[in-house]
Each structure stands twice: as C-alpha cells, then as structure tokens.
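Fold this complex.
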Amino acid sequence: MTAGGLILRADKLGKWYGNVLGLSDVSIEIGPGITGLLGPNGAGKSTFMKLITGQLRPSIGTVTIAGRPVWNNPGIFKSVGFCPEQDAFYEDTTGREFLSGLLALGGFSAAEIRERTARALAFVELTADADRLIRGYSRGMRQRLKISQALAHEPEVLILDEPLNGLDPLSKRKVIRLIKEYRTEGRTVLVSSHVLPEIEALTRSIVLIHQGKILAQGDIHFIRDLIDAHPHIVAVRTGRGRALAAKFVGEDDVRSVRFDEAQGTVLFETRNRDRFFERLTGLAAEEGWEIEEITSPDDNLQSVFDYLVGK
Amino acid sequence: MRIAPFVSVYKFSARLVRRSRRSRLLGALGLLPVILAVILQITRAAAAGGGLDGLEVFSNFVMGFSLQFLVLLLSLFFGTAITADEVDNKTLTYPATRPVSKAAFILGKYASSVSFLLVLVLTSTVVSFLILMIDRLSYGTAWTFLGRSLAALGFGTICYTALFTFAGTFLRKSVLIGLVFCFGWENVVQYFPGTTQKFTIMHWLKSLLPGLGAGMGSPEGGGLTAFLLFRHEPSPVGTAVAVLLLLTAVFLALAVAVFSRKEYLFDE
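Structure:
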C-alpha cells in the first residue's frame, strides 16, 4: 500500500453526553506528519479520538478522513489504524493470534496475515513473546502490542490515544522511536497526551485542547513562548527572604512579591522567568546568600491552559 | 452484507468462544445430561431390568432439563455476551475500528456462539440418548423421537440466542432481565391455556416434539413427554418452524439495527 498521508478534517464538531459537554465547535485539519493533541485530563482528547475513529457519533458537525465521513463507514478503516487508551485485550489469546485475528477482519489473505503479523511483531520487538498468552504480558509489552495492531495493516492515518501512558522510561523511549519510524512516507500520525515533554519528544506540531475546545494549533515553540510569557510564580526558600524581596521589588518584570510565613518562602510573580532566574543566581553569588530551595509551583500545563482560557 | 467479513468475524469469534472461561464453565453444564444418563442407567441396571423405561427417562428428564433449563441458560449467557463482553472488557474498540460492518460483526459473533452451543447441546443429547437406549437402539419410534427432540433443542438454541443477542445490545442488566424472562415468563406462561401460551417461544418449540397431538406417544401408550407437554396445545409443526425462523430473523435484525445506531461508552 502506498502511503499518501490522508487529511483528517473536523468541521464545527461537537459532542454532548446528555447535558455534559464533551467537545464544542472543533474545526481542525490534520495532515501528514506527527501531530500532538495536547491537553490536561478531561480536556476532551479521548472524545475527539473516539469521534474521529467513528466510535462516537457527532452531536453536531462533521468529521471526515480523505473527504469520507467516519461514522458508520467501516471501509475507512482500511486506511486508518487506532490504538486505544484503555489497557484492554482478548486476554486468552496469544499476541500472534490477537494480531492475526484482527488482520483477518481487515480482509487480508492467509498468507498476507502471516506475513503482516510477523512484520508487526518484529517492528514492536515482540517476536520472541508472540506465542505467549497476552494475560502474561508486561505493561510495556501490552502497550507495544496495542500499537502493533494499529499499524499492522500499514494504515495511512495512525491515531494513538495516550500511547505512553503508564510506561516506564525505557518503554517510553521504545514507543517514541516506533512512532517516529512509522511517520515515514508522508503518513499522518495523531498522538494524544496530557504530558508536554512526551509530545515534545515526538513532534513540533501540536494542537492544544482544553474544556472541549481547541485553543490553538501550531508549532510547539508557540506553547513554550506562552509558558514564558505567562506570569510565573517562583517560590524561593532562603534565610534572607526580606532582603531578597527588597532587591526585586523595583524590577519591571516582577509583578508582585509575597511572603509565605508557613513555608518560609518568598513568592515572586514574574513576567520574565529567564531574566528573573538570571538575576536571582547573580544576587546569590554576589551577596553570598544561601538559597535553600527554588520551586515553580505553576510551571505545568494546567496553569498554561488556565491562563489561555482567562482563569 | 458481504460474506467475507462475516466469515472473518465468525472465525475470530469462534476461537474466542472456545477459549473463554464461560465456555469451559457452561460447557461442563452442557455435559450434565450425559452424567445424569450414566447414573440413571447404572441405577436401572442395578434394579435388574426393573425401574423406568429408557425412552421415558430420556423424554421426561433429559429433554425436560435440556429444553426447559439448559438451552435457556446457555442461550442467555452466550447471547447477551456477544456485545456485553466486548463492552465490559473494553475490547469493542478493536473490531469497531476494522473494515467490518456492524451487521457482519453481530451476525458473525452470533453464528460462532450458536455453532458452539449446537455442538454442545446436540452432542450431549445424542450421547445421553445412546446411553439410556443402549438396549433398545433398534426401536424405530425412539429414533424418530430423538430426531424431533434434536430439532426442538436446535431451534431453541438458535431462537433464544438471537433473542438474547438483541437484549444484550441495549440492556445494561441483560442477564438479570433474561433470567426473569426465562424462568418467569417462559416457564410459566407456556402452561396457560388457549392462545396465551403462543406468546412464549417454548410453545413453538414444544410443538416440534412428538407428543399427544402428533401421535408419537409412548410405545406403551403411556405418558411419554407428558411432563413436557402438560397443558400444551400444539401448533402444526410447519407453522412452529416458520414462527421460530421468523422470530430468529426479527431478533437478529433488531440486534443489528440497535448495534449500528448505538454508541457504546466504556465506564472509566
């Protein structure tokens, strides 16, 4: 099969679960290459994934792949592979039986099934364990098997829902490498995650989703810039808290200074994190002040999303 | 619907059915008539030619147990599991994201479950018959009785499994509701007089049995199948077969229709 990188398009897509909003007014176009869908837990990533794989019917709007609607259109899955988030398998089958059974549902001949099963197992480094029951697989092996079923039929569009969830660092590296390898020949790969560094390790192209809405789409530098532009709280624990505060009060980039008596820290709110840290380390060196601890309690994705939606 | 996806689903599902714990557990239940037949035959042998007639035992106990309990229970657990297992185990995503229509999925899984059940129920019934009739195998009426009994059990498996496949597509507590249906409705209303009993599937199944109305009674002129046919007002065999096939087709069509339209959300 030639891989052409099909376009995945959502137009004014919305989904409600009764009165609960799952996704609202999402219009987006995802083309060849790896795109990261980034958002905190409960942002609507899984709802979006289920809508674009035809597991849910849109309440409003449309979702198409290569111009063809997804809902109740099984033919589309000849060119789409999906790796679900949930750790669910037919536990009493072996890895090989699991893959070959699902390939058979794709209409391949017996010889093709054997060949593709072997190739997919080798790709995810599970050949040696192919004939063991899945219930005996480790978490990392299960995750790799789940990915292999999504790409065994060599789809042009690969959709992965939280593929790195719950993996140890070694398994994460393996899976990241597998996903990057698969991107070749202009295929379209969409990966969801709630962890920014995971997405950064995979791609520069991201879509930010929060509270069921797409907040932004573009290069990952964009979100890094946002993190930098977003007023930052830095907590500094030192015995010279008041003296330190006095040094920063007059700085343009420092918006506020507070004392947390209970924690014994000074909280600085700054618009320029890099400049703040530069001055802080400089002062500590010049004055010989001992800095016990520096933490940035809001340096996480959730705070950026909160900032973006104006909380 | 194209046949190839149906066959693929059938093969895939047949392997899962054979391997499942449910099959092992309920498969053992399916062998119960054979075990009981062995015990009864030993008891009869110990009575030195006395005791119950083999055909009478087969009709009243084995058929009564198989038709009114075993087929119902097996069909309920396998039929409802066709979609419920995939939803509960969160594996539905895999077949749902393959180039297979929802009709092929439901019908392929139904066919694999029914095949397994038919082999189990019919084999166990034939073996029970052979054990109980070992000394009277040349008796022609007995073979006719066996044939009609197998037809009733076969149609029962096909029709009830279709009903519970349909129930499983839209009911959350389909097993519980199915149990009430089996042992409340089916096992009670079948004994109501007049037209009312025709509102049970069991009425149409029992119409397939050789009974009082069909002139296929006991060679001794006694009460063969009397237990099964108590208060039964049989319908013609042809009508019964037509109704059972129609009901099966309707239940399966409904199952496909519901499954094609419903969104299945996994409880997180």
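The two ends of chain A are 48 Å apart (CA to CA).
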